[in-house]
Amino acid sequence: MLRINWISVDPGMSGWITNKRSYMPAVKPGSIMRAFGLGEVIESNSDSLSVGDTVTGFTGVCTHAVLSDKYLRKVDISEAPPQMYLSALGMTGYTGYFGMTDIGRPEPGQTVVVSSAAGAVGSVASQIAKKIGARVVGVAGGPDKKSYLLDELGLDAAIDYRNEELAASLEVAAPGGIDVYFDNVGGEFLDAALMQMNRHGRIVVCGGISQYSDWENAQGPANYMQIVTHSLTMQGFTMRDYMTRIPEALEELLEGYKSGSLKSREHVMTGIESFPEAFDMLFSGDNQGKLLIKIS
Ligand SMILES: NC(=O)c1ccc[n+]([C@@H]2O[C@H](COP(=O)([O-])OP(=O)(O)OC[C@H]3O[C@@H](n4cnc5c(N)ncnc54)[C@H](OP(=O)(O)O)[C@@H]3O)[C@@H](O)[C@H]2O)c1
Asked: What's the pTM?
């Protein structure tokens, strides 16, 4: 049995409660909402987990859970604060890492654009691209997030899409065109990026949060013929593709955390009852970094 200490609040949850074809079965009304969580083992019949161990996995939005050890992963909290295993050192961090290194594959000097760049996944993806030596342009909403991208993450340029016209600003920020677009937003963002992609550019389809509030009427990219005319590659992924490679990502991200080169920020809500308010923040953009709920 686990006592759950932290819960991760993720945009993907909106997809988990629809009946649209997806990579996991829909959460049924009346059942416990699916969520990544982190907690402490307080009772154990397992050979691999002992009382006192800290573990992560799909714990659900709850205070305690009884789960098989095959669905849990032990983490070393002597290396980093526990909640970081739900943020930059957890699934969102791994998503940014694999999306950028395995699919985006920027080369030094190439131009990378990342949307929702101040968020959990986008901030890691941006920093990985910088580490590779790319020129990185981050897109986020509001002056505070823009300053964060420039001053804290050290990106080469940033666009506040709430106060700047996206397509025109992209032309200024990426005058030589875009080699890699890491898309967290979809919709108009994807269309704007498509029009400025360089030949043989790569689009990493990580998410499309601008479309999650109306799954029935999700908008596809109108400018998709750019994929043909500029020989682009557009590839989606989920962490399901990379489960066996988690140790590789964790080693790299942990090294960045310990050396201070990997920055991350967490937006912490308190108490399980804050879940509905927290979930809404993802879509208003009120979260400043990885959105977490502290349970106990
Ligand atoms: N493929 C995978 O395996 C995988 C795994 C995890 C997450 N994801 C995807 O990655 C993306 C980011 O997730 P995250 O956990 O890192 O969340 P996040 O970026 O920390 O938080 C969500 C952010 O999305 C932005 N946003 C919300 N509505 C928007 C809209 N209509 N237009 C533009 N921006 C909007 C807001 O930032 P602004 O204030 O900047 O607008 C908001 O703060 C999501 O699309 C998510 O589904 C994919």
From this structure: 0.97
